[in-house]
Structure formats: C-alpha cells, structure tokens
Design brief:
2 helices; globular; disordered N terminus
Amino acid sequence: MTHERTAGADALAKTHFRGLFDARVYNYGDYNILVAEGLGARSQETFLLGYRPSPREILVCPLGDSPVVQISEMDVSVAAVDATDRTVGIITTNGLALEFSLEDVASAPVGPALAVLNQSDDVADFLAFMQVLARDAA
C-alpha cells in the first residue's frame, strides 16, 4: 500500500511540474523535463530543466517568476558534466554561466507543500545528453 501511495504522489508531482513547464514554454511537448537545484550564484533556486536532442537545446525554467532561458547547441561555449556528483555546468557564448545539481529524488515547493519526485531515469538521460553536448562543445 505504501508503494502505491508513493507512486501516486510521484505521478501527481510529475503532472504538476509538467504543467508548470508547459504553461511557460512554446512547443513544450518536445522537451523532457527534470527538477534541478541551482549552484553557485543561483544556489537556493529550484529550476525545471527542459531538454531535447533535436535540435539540441536546453530550457532553464525557474520555478519563480524569472524568465525562461533558452540555450541552443550553438550558444554553448563550455559544457561540463560530473556524473559522480550529478552536477552540470554550462557557459554560453554570451558569458552566461549556469550550474545545477541533480538528484534522483528531487523535492520542490508546491504551494504550502513539498512535492517529492523520483526522477532517476530522467537524471541518467539528462547526464547522457549533457555528455554529448560537452563532447561536441569541446
């Protein structure tokens, strides 16, 4: 019974985060999404990262009111991936530097509650995506 409640809560969290992303992004269905925590200057911020392999692109969608940042493959100057620590970094050609921490089980505020999301498959997929991006940016 506990497993069913966890699976149900996970599905609700995924639906909630997908709705937040979709409301702010054009062609939202083209993107896989996952929850990430900002590092460095953006620490203490939670983001939805949308990514797609073709055309290769990342959308950085803050959970707050800040604008969505679109990063195409051509905009990437440097991409770094640490699969062990589950961190990624991107520096764009215009100097924007972003770093994120990824967790297999992420949590983010949903109103007064905290949504907990199992995203281990999404994290593995995004790390593989970022490794290709890092290789091609080098």
